[in-house]
Amino acid sequence: MPGRVRLPPATLRWSVMDETQVAPVVEETRKGRRGRMFGARRGTAGLKNRSSDLAARVLVAVPLVVLAVVLVAAGGWVFAAGLLVLGIMALRELFSMFPRWAVPVFAVFFAFLLMIVAARTGGPPRLLLATVVALPVVFIGGLLAPRRSDVRGLALGMLGLAWIGLALSHAVMLRDLEHGAAILVLVLVATFIGDTAAYFGGRAFGRRKLAPALSPAKTWEGLVIGILAGTLAGWFVGLYLDWLTGLQALLLGFAAALIAPLGDLFESALKREADAKDSGSVFGAHGGVLDRLDAALFAVVVGFYVWQAML
Q1: Domain edges within the chain
Q2: In terms of CB atoms within 10 Å, which of 127, 164, 187, 302 comes out highest?
Q3: Distance of CA 211 to the CA centre of its chain
Q4: Tell me, what's the pLDDT at 48?
Q5: In terms of DSSP H, where are the helices of the chain?
Q6: Cα separation of 185 and 177, whole Å?
Q7: For 212-257, what is each residue's pLDDT tens digit?
Q8: Helix (H, G, I), strand (E, B) or coil at 102
Q9: CA 238/CA 227 separation, integer angstroms
Q10: Are 249 and 234 in contact (CB under 8 A)?
Q11: 209 DSSP β-pair partners
Q12: Distance between first and last Cα of the chain
């Protein structure tokens, strides 16, 4: 019609959009840009956090590795005495997680001393006898203590002996076996490498939770990566031991890497029951002695029996 101005289609479309329609589009564009920008920052921060975690783990591991090498190399009563001190520290951490439970502490320490001495002087038969004697020792100690122990305290004391006492006693016996020093190092290396690989592998690839009720951060993917890495670490150590076959090294590494996560989960269950994040603070933000030894306490027991079966 004459006098009517025809607008181009694009201009017409823009003219009919009011500010309530334009604003969401602009805001969405801004959000997208911010998301990409902050996502890149989060990715960089994630890499920095992983690097700092690795550095912190190495700093904690170095003094422990040095201490372990010195004690294992010394062997004999020096090694046994070192494990006795380490075990007392671990037992104290365990009991401190349950402060309301009246544990006969000194009776447990004495029973632990008997177990270490028995393992050093008589092997499995004498250790069995010392373990049997430990039960009445702890019970009598609970009766004579100024603060009489209750059933929970007695049970916690026996748990400490069965878990920490027997494990460290088996470490003493493993060291005293033929080539025991090298086998103990192999087991500890497989445990440490497997635990570290499981941690970082789970963070990188973890999707399916392993035991969310006990340890929400652990995943099945991390578990598999840790077992594979620990097995390979055991095999690698075996390359430097000409008296050990490749198959034996693989089996020892696999046994240690397979059982070690159970030790980790076991301590996680105790900490969950005690509502504690760490067992102690000896290593600052990285927890206590039990937090560093939880996996090894299970691994050395299995390592002893696997290697004894191979002899």
Answers
A1: 60-176, 178-311
A2: 187
A3: 14
A4: 55
A5: 9-15, 19-74, 76-96, 105-144, 151-160, 166-176, 180-205, 220-238, 246-274, 289-310
A6: 13
A7: 988 888 999 999 999 999 999 999 999 999 999 999 999 999 999 9
A8: coil
A9: 17
A10: yes
A11: 219
A12: 107
